Q: What sequence folds into this?
């Protein structure tokens, strides 16, 4: 995958192998990886349990939004562990020096992955939460703007970093995280999310970086 600074789509949703299920999630892996790796992920029986454990709440936080609630997955330690393990199996041995987690759901999965692969954890926080000197990246949401901040000195130039969040919708948040880390000189290896919303998969703005998603929600739009 090239690293050109454009807004090309980089997620290959399910590679056509996603399996629709009753609760509206497809078991899917959307990697920009070797075919063999993709096959392993798609055939992995743990994906079914992960998908089943995510609750979809209609019209939250506002009408029309099908909210993908991961708190139900967190109540099931075996499934929670399966999700972390799948990420760890993918990233172990890849020379990842840092895992950067996006507030808030990236703080749930990121530290466990970081510890398991022997990397440091860097919180990317919403504005005015970090006490030290920060660098900031403002990004555009569907309505309005938001901002991510990181402590200066958290990452060293050329360190290999994995970005983790719970969910990718438009990709705007991940794109801001990539920009922030690259401005600090980091080498962004990949972005990893538990859930991808397929509604947006053709318009991701990820600066040419791959995104790896365990399950795809099919119930976003009603
Ligand atoms: O791909 P995007 O369109 O940028 O959207 C994805 C972002 O939206 C959600 O965060 P949210 O702002 O809801 O904050 P939270 O995780 O703190 O609830 C999600 O956790 C991602 O960070
Ligand atoms: N549909 C959704 N469910 C959970 N979190 C989200 N963040 C953005 N869209 C979301």
A:
């Amino acid at each position: 995958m090239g690293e050109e600074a454009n807004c090309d789509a980089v997620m290959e949703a399910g590679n056509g192998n996603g399996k629709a299920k009753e609760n509206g999630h497809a078991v899917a892996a959307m990697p920009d990886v070797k075919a063999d790796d993709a096959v392993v992920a798609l055939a992995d029986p743990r994906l079914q349990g992960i998908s089943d454990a995510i609750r979809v709440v209609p019209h939250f936080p506002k009408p029309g939004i099908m909210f993908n609630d991961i708190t139900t997955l967190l109540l099931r330690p075996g499934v929670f562990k399966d999700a972390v393990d799948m990420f760890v199996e993918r990233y172990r041995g890849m020379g990842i020096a840092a895992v950067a987690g996006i507030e808030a759901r990236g703080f749930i999965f990121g530290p466990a992955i970081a510890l398991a692969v022997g990397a440091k954890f860097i919180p990317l926080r919403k504005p005015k939460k970090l006490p030290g000197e920060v660098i900031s990246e403002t990004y555009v949401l569907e309505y309005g703007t938001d901002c991510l901040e990181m402590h200066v000195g958290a990452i060293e130039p050329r360190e290999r970093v994995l970005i983790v969040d719970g969910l990718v919708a438009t990709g705007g948040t991940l794109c801001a995280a990539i920009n922030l880390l690259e401005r600090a000189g980091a080498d962004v290896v990949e972005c990893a999310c538990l859930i991808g919303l397929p509604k947006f998969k053709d318009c991701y703005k990820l600066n040419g970086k791959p995104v790896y998603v365990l399950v795809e929600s099919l119930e976003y739009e009603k």
Q: What stands out?
A: Strands lie at 25-27, 55-58, 66-69, 98-102, 120-124, 134-140, 145-151, 160-168, 187-196, 211-217. Residues 94-216 form a domain with the Rossmann fold fold (CATH 3.40.50.2020). Residues 102-105, 165-173 surround PRP (ligand 1) (CB under 6 Å).
